[in-house]
Structure formats: structure tokens, C-alpha cells
Specification:
Strands 2-1-5-6 form a four-stranded mixed β-sheet, covered by helices on one side. A two-stranded antiparallel sheet has the order 3-4. Helix 1 packs antiparallel against helix 2. The protein is of the alpha/beta class. It contains two helices and eight strands, in the order E-H-E-E-E-E-H-E-E-E.
Length: about 110
């Protein structure tokens, strides 16, 4: 039950959203989670500031998942996300924050896991 929510400073075409959604669907296996339960959200044209300066190109990516993953899996996922956002959106890795949120109670389809 992962959810990857991205707040991005640049505009995203529907094609870019599709590419990112597809690539994140592949990457979620790093966290031992199936793509079939992955939910992805994008908020583009979002104002982000780092060190008091407005970023022309930046992203905040929050990854929530039922349970937790290993530190090494989180490290690999962060590297994958940073590379993907740089390749597809031109956002340098040093302007991408990635956070992880393990959730112990997760509901879906009228029930909790």
C-alpha cells in the first residue's frame, strides 16, 4: 500500500506524468511493494524554497507505505527517484527532498490491513 506524492516546481505534461507514474511503478519493488497497489500523485507548478531561495527546479517527494523497508532499500529508492526526476524533469538531485513514512494502520476498500 504505497503512496508516492510529489510536489514539483515545474509544469508537467500528461506524457511526463505517465512516464513518471510508470517508472515509479517499477521502482516501488525496491521497497518490496507491488505496483498494483501503488497510488501516485503529482502537484506541479508548486512553490518550493530551499535555504531561503525560491527553486526554479525542485521537488519534494513523500513516500508512504504500509509497514517499513530497510535503510538500504530507502537509500536505493532515493537514488532512483533523484535520477528519475533529473532525467525526466531536469530537476537536479540536490534540489529533491525525499521522505519516507511507515504507516501501521492503512485502510482500503472498506477495511484496514
Amino acid at each position: 500500500m504505497p503512496f508516492i506524492d510529489s510536489k514539483i516546481t515545474v509544469s508537467m505534461s500528461e506524457d511526463k506524468k505517465t512516464v513518471l507514474k510508470t517508472e515509479l511503478g517499477k521502482a516501488v519493488s525496491i521497497l518490496s511493494k507491488p505496483e498494483r497497489f501503488l497510488m501516485v500523485g503529482f502537484e506541479d507548478n508548486y512553490d518550493l524554497y530551499m535555504g531561503g531561495q525560491k527553486l526554479d527546479k525542485g521537488a519534494y517527494v513523500a513516500v508512504s507505505l504500509f509497514g517499513n523497508a530497510s535503510k538500504s532499500a530507502y537509500e536505493e529508492m532515493t537514488a532512483t527517484i533523484c535520477k528519475l526526476y533529473e532525467k525526466e524533469l531536469g530537476i537536479p538531485g540536490d534540489c529533491v527532498y525525499v521522505t519516507y513514512h511507515g504507516v501501521s494502520d492503512w485502510g482500503w476498500n472498506g477495511q484496514n490491513f
